[in-house]
Design brief:
GO terms for molecular function: 3-keto-5-aminohexanoate cleavage activity; metal ion binding. The chain is an alpha/beta fold. The chain contains 8 helices and 16 strands. Strand 4 (about 50) and strand 5 form a beta hairpin.
Length: about 270
């Protein structure tokens, strides 16, 4: 059987605006619309950030609820809510976990952004992890450098995290780990045994690294959170749907198959922990 590859779509994140790319979804209905369209094209996981009425990042649980409910009315894509550093201050970032999504992001360390700090102190990491497990939410461990893999290993031994772990390896964020094939290979090599991994690559290196991720046995993430341009040479804006379509083509050209949501749930062992 051909190996199944999971596509995650990250439709907006906390940074892009319509001035950066006119196709950027901002409102709950726009975000849900893009997610549902990407689901029909082959995405099995949706990594969700919320924006307030002014378009700024928010940890407001009601905003997350609205997006989640709009998506669930239309499809059975796996919803993964963000608890990232740009969504709020400290413990309020965990409010969305009460909505009991199937997954939520969990960054296991601090790093730099281009104009700020990706702050994740130990007490916050443990608080978020505990709250996820109490609500039946599977963490996706987001790592921006090697130390975050090591800390995930430490938290696994400590019992804060539970095996098997699902990682999202994030490359090329300005201020953090660069997006080189050598860095990706090393990160994959040091993951705990039986872990799954997905690769997120920001900007120009996205197509190269997601292709390499498929070859190495991983999954991939695409979307306007990570890349505004479909073609940098032509300065051609992308859409979430265009990025998912390209991801599908890459997977098929490499002789793999795109995982459906039910297959993704099996691969990620959702509902078993």
């Amino acid at each position: 059987m051909k190996r199944k590859v999971i596509i995650t779509v990250a439709p907006v994140g906390s940074v892009p605006t319509k001035k950066d790319n006119p196709h950027t979804p901002i409102t709950p209905s726009e975000i849900a619309r893009d997610v549902v369209a990407c689901y029909h094209l082959g995405a099995s996981v949706a990594h969700i950030h919320a924006r307030d009425d002014s378009g700024k990042p928010t940890a407001d649980v009601n905003r997350y609820r609205e997006i989640k409910e709009l998506i669930e009315k239309e499809c059975d894509i796996i919803i993964q809510l963000s608890t990232g550093a740009r969504t709020g201050n400290h413990f309020e970032r965990g409010a969305c976990i009460d909505l009991r999504p199937e997954m939520a992001s969990l960054t296991t360390g601090s790093s730099n952004f281009s104009n700020g700090v990706n702050l994740n102190p130990p007490d916050l990491i443990e608080y978020l992890a505990q709250k996820m497990y109490e609500n039946g939410v599977v963490p996706e461990i987001e790592v921006f450098d090697i130390s975050m893999v090591d800390n995930a290993r430490f938290l696994l031994k400590k019992g804060v995290l539970r095996p098997p772990l699902n990682f999202n390896l994030v490359f090329n964020v300005p201020g953090s780990m660069s997006g080189t094939p050598k860095n990706l290979l090393h990160m994959v090599e040091i993951l705990p045994e039986k872990s799954t991994f997905s690769v997120t690559a920001i900007g120009r290196v996205q197509t190269d690294l997601i292709t390499m991720a498929v070859i190495l046995g991983g999954n991939i993430r695409v979307g306007l959170e990570d890349n505004l341009f479909y073609s940098y040479e032509d300065k051609m804006f992308g859409t979430n749907m265009m990025f998912v379509e390209r991801a599908v083509r890459i997977i098929k050209e490499l002789g793999r198959e795109v995982a459906r949501p039910d297959e993704a749930r099996e691969i990620l062992q959702l509902g078993r922990r």
